[in-house]
Design goal:
- The protein is of the alpha/beta class.
- The chain is about 45% helix and about 15% strand.
- A seven-stranded parallel sheet has the order 13-14-12-15-16-11-19, sandwiched between helices. A six-stranded parallel sheet has the order 3-2-6-7-1-8, sandwiched between helices. The protein has a five-stranded antiparallel sheet with strand order 23-22-21-20-24, with no helix packed on it.
- A hairpin with a 3-residue loop joins β20 (about 695) and β21 (about 700-710).
- It is globular, with a radius of gyration of 28 Å.
- The N and C termini lie far apart (about 90 Å).
- It binds a DNA duplex (15 and 10 nucleotides) through α5, α9, α18 and α25.
Amino acid sequence: MKALRNSKRNLQAFLDGLNPQQRAAVTADEGPVLVIAGAGSGKTRVLTGRAFYLIAEMKVHPAAIAVMTFTNKAAGELQKRLEELLGNRDSVPWAGTFHGFCARLLRQYGDTIGLPRDYSIYDQADSEKVVAELLIERKYSRDEIVPSTMRNWISVLKSGGALSGRHRFHKLAAELVGDYDKRLRSAGAVDFDDLLLLPLELFRVNPEILSKLQHRYDHILIDEFQDTNRIQYNLARAIAAPQNNLYVVGDDDQSIYGWRGADIRNLIDFQRDFKQGQSFSLEQNYRSTQQILDVANDVIAAKNHHNLKQLWTEKTNGEQVVFRQHSRAADEANEVVGEMDALVNRQGMSWSDFAVLLRTNSLSRYFEEVLISQSIPYTIVGGTKFYDRREVKDLTAFLRVLSNPGDEQAWKRILKTPPKGIGEVTIARVVDRCRRTGMSFGEVIADAELLSDASTATRNRLEKLSNALSHIAEHNKQSSLSELAADVLRKSGLIEYYEEKFPEEADDRVANLYQFIEAAKDREAAHPEYSLSDFLSEIALVSDIDDYNEAVNRVTLMTMHAAKGLEFPVVFAAALEDNLLPHSRSSDSIEEIEEERRLFYVAITRAQDRLYLSASETRALNGQLMFQEPSRFLRDIDPSRLKGWTLPREARSMMFEPTEENYHTERPSYRSKSKNNSGLNGASLIPYKIGDIVEHPDFGMGVVTAKSGSLDSLKVRVAFEGVGSKLLALKYATLRKVE
DNA sequence: CATCTCAAGCTTTTT
DNA sequence: GCTTGAGATG
């Protein structure tokens, strides 16, 4: 009672702290609500406020609210904030990712659609392996089609998307989906797409489960709505029906997950599907200075669709945005770190005020090196996740098999690491037996004498493993999760294996294995009710941002994707070069390039006080030194907004007026750079292409095989007839192009 | 039949 | 600069 009175008082204070737009959105009537929330406009605040308002004012029971967030971290923060507002940790709504929500649902009801209670979740690598196996069986070589690409296509198809059909293997993707799904089902496994899809199947088969959920959740709130896919939208709609208390918050300008199946049409369709719905737009930005917003607006204004909102801020006395182009990537990293150092020493800033945002994980290397050499604390978000480390996956494979004896991919991993005298041939025999008898992998191994064509020694090895595992299972019937994990670790032989075979890296690996046990302890403390399979689901669904802790004083390096939803006093957006941003692999269509533009916009709008943009003229990519052009998006920024080196205004990439007509036709200006590359894009700097025939006064005729060097010492490697390969500095060598 | 070793290949973003 | 693949060896 007292808590309620308190929370009512808190609510008033909370509402008073909002601007009129935010307040209107928070206190909207029930029913469908769409909130278009620009970058830094207090989106999280509104979402939290809405939940708070529903509970404190509309008397909605906290358990009747579900909040879908993009990451577990966002969910945790939202719950923490609500706890503070409500003053009661038990009265906080459920919050989590769609995937987490669905995993739980399937754990509970999956058996009604034939899914074992302890089903496994196949991660990217697992499902890629399944695809690779299917491709090998059909005699496709890696050179023809890469399994990861095929897996992505299959994923797009499964999550309701369509393939253009332009690629000759698009059709194959459609043919493989069925077999792929069958493989997973027979292993008692689901992939990330299934997690979302199977609940819909569940609802179809068991309408009463859906109706139970509909009664349980009166209100569904969705964050980052622009990055939901079709299936997620359908799920939310199904559960929110029939009252349709569906509250979605998003920003079309920040949609950066189209490649993963996110469908921006959800935002548009929401308005069409719920004509009676209310919509709000948050346009005041509380994060960035006007100088930063101007740059962001220039970048996004060059896109080709009408703006739903216009961002503004009261922070008008900010620093000018800086742009610098360096000649080498190492210089760029040095400059960036030097600037951080200056800000710390002269402005009293902290390392944790800085974020370096990059297009790809691998670009962090240079920055890391400099930070290490200067003993500056830093953290990398992303890259290889803890649970994706080899040794950790080795250990989880044992746990997965204990949880789900059908988990084929996990079995294969155990059989190989540590080596057990079981190889490809034996594995193929086991798999073959599974397919023909319908037995699970675990059952076949437990009955190894049935494998008549395997040698006695092999059969004995299989049986030994099988017995060891059942012994572990038996022995740990009463054990906690961490005790089980520790026992598995002891008996797996993994520690001995790494120490013997890889002594130089064993320390790290063994430390990680022990850290895994600690992680298990943490989980069981937080969730005493967790079963092994609950624990394994959680592991499968953690994102790398989830354990990012901004309170620690260290520089953050991360991808622009990972930075979504975060903010930093000072942002360094680096390596802003064509072929990286937009990425060469995302330059096949206008849609892809526009998504890259939005990614840049997201990166810019993470900055609160200062923004530094930088690029390098040269950069080693894929082990080759490349000449880099500044990102074409930089040309869309009014040069007067940038301090430092400026790009000529006339070179702006979007000189033409976008019209409905030319928007949908592909423009040659967009495609020219990335398409015809023979691996290099600095053609203007070195007047030779790889493969060109050149003549040298002393060495005679030769073929250009490589280009390298920094700007003042451009070099080409030329293979001369009879003389061999020579590295020539263009400055000195007199080369003549033949033909 | 398994495993070791070296060469050749590849390298976006991620629940 | 880091993982898959072929080939040799045990």
